[in-house]
Amino acid sequence: MFKLDSATQLLDTFRPKDRRTVELSPDFTFPLVVKDYLAWKHPAGGRVFLVFAVPGGVPTGIAFDSNGGGSAAVPAMCSWCHCTAPGTGIGLLTATLNGSKRVGAIICEDLSCRDKLEEAANRTGSSVRPAMEKLVARMGKFASDALRIDLSGAGR
Hints:
The structure is a single chain. The protein is of the alpha+beta class. The protein has one domain (2-146). 25% of the residues lie in helices and 30% in strands. The chain has 4 helices and 9 strands. The strands form 3 sheets. Strands 3-4-5-8-9 form a 5-stranded antiparallel β-sheet, with helices on one face. A two-stranded antiparallel sheet has the order 1-2. It has a two-stranded antiparallel sheet with strand order 6-7. Strand 8 (90-98) and strand 9 form a beta hairpin. The chain starts with a strand and ends in a 10-residue tail after the last helix.
């Protein structure tokens, strides 16, 4: 859980090269208390934004470009929450590594992993916490391994 006191603090979770692409949701009111992660779509589409914090780390933002999902006829599995959905709900989201290099993951197009994990936990009568912790860890692994973001906040 983490708290963001202002729009500036929220924007500062993103790498400097990504901040210019971030458009905050008009629904945000500050301070924002974030339980696991915060995700929202760009109003015009094409981009999805994520802010999360791994245990012991600082809030970290990732600006993704969306390709609009896969084929409606082909189900796919999110590599972060491991839930399945029609291809239009799961697709390749990419983020800039540096220059013209991009990296991506096949994940829920709207980053609605939390909702899917909560629904699955409710169906089985189990706690969603272990699944949420694994989800945030996978987000952190993508950020640190693929995007080379220091999750401690050093160098931001």
